[in-house]
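quick one, two chains, predict together pls
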Amino acid sequence: MLEPGMTRRELAAAVAKSGLSVAALAALADPAAADAASTPFPAERQGSGMKAALLVYPQMTALDMVGPLQVLTGMGRIELNLVWKSKQPVVTDSGMPIVPTMTFDDCPKDLTVLFAPGGSAGTIAAMNDDAVLDFLADSGKSAKYVTSVCTGALLLGAAGLLKGYRATTHWLAHDTLSLFGATPVKSRVVEDRNRITGAGVSAGLDFGLRLVALLQNEQRAKSVQLMLEYDPQPPFRAGSPELAGKEISDPMRRSLEPALAMIRAAAKRSEKRRA
Amino acid sequence: MLEPGMTRRELAAAVAKSGLSVAALAALADPAAADAASTPFPAERQGSGMKAALLVYPQMTALDMVGPLQVLTGMGRIELNLVWKSKQPVVTDSGMPIVPTMTFDDCPKDLTVLFAPGGSAGTIAAMNDDAVLDFLADSGKSAKYVTSVCTGALLLGAAGLLKGYRATTHWLAHDTLSLFGATPVKSRVVEDRNRITGAGVSAGLDFGLRLVALLQNEQRAKSVQLMLEYDPQPPFRAGSPELAGKEISDPMRRSLEPALAMIRAAAKRSEKRRA
């Protein structure tokens, strides 16, 4: 029905006449997008054999996970699973309830990507949850890439997956990486062998694009970047403690003290647990 | 229990002794965060009287909405509602199912922010859905700010909300804004009176921070930016057609032809509908 070399007008007329559904037309427009635009995680996306498990949990920071998820969706050709104890909705720190698509028990062992998002109180709770740590430790043994954004790195750490690795996390929690035997590195994305960790929340986009370059190639990553129009233009210069200045960053550091104490306690607990 | 001037060690000991729950400790650490970290959209967040309705719909682009949602969560003091026809989960283009928290029928009329996210096939379907257009047109009459990210602008346009306004959308659909009587402006975020529109997908972060500056002030926006560590460092320079070059952008433009035809058809239909 659609032939190469048609003018816009001819094409529009052909589309109008086609009687095809919106979804069917979208499939003509971009097979990868239409792929993503059907039911959750359709079989076609499993073509490459690549599989990702993205941990979801109550009070996680939604954007930590949705940034990389959207980038991987743009890449296509990877099975994307949102994994939790059950398929009951989990309420994220933004109040948005997400429905997990797979349980820990059903998660395949031959993962291409294991991913942990961060958060604040919810992440500390997860660091003290043996079911979460067992899942991460077990899946992390065989996953091709073991990854995180933000304080998701502390979850990897509590599961024993960062010992001896360079890593990064949210700037507020950066120093605590050493509690898990990791070497904290100040960088937006840190790659050390098969561990890839991103800085706080919004770093999930930068992390995701690095991951696409590793899973496929730079050309594909650039293509996804353009589709997401990721040409960031923050209206303010305040995205790091250095840029924001002490007036903004110091109160945050101070308010974090009790959480840091809880992170230290969770680190100790997880160390004992693994011993 | 916690007193100013305690050392980290004293604080850690006090926390360990406190017996408080993680959530309660988080509340001490950061009242705004703890607020966000309880049940969805708790009453406390309604203190300011500000209310946002974020449209959700099948096959929407998840990140279009989650970027602004996370920024507004960081701002706090605003009631955030994910609005759809029913409270059945909607599956986004990333495959992630989101549970709407409010129906069109229950949505308050005195909104501070009405927001529409974009997508591809799902957005075109929504542009042809009278229930969606009625909800947007009706809510948009009284909302303090009428906003969108990405092709969410086409939904606002189809609802008649952009006629005579300057606006932006995803670069691929930019020209189509004129079909709705809007003036397309090439800018990351476009503000024209109470219409605020963002460019493609990832522009939701830049848009969200501008919105926080308007709803509260620049200091608060910078604070949120730091909490989200939004100091973007894309690994590639390919976030606009100019940066990516024709080799990457031209195939995308060509593959979009059928979708453009559908957008034109939806624009015509919506114009007739409003006449």
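The CA atoms of residues 46 and 89 of chain B lie 24 Å apart.
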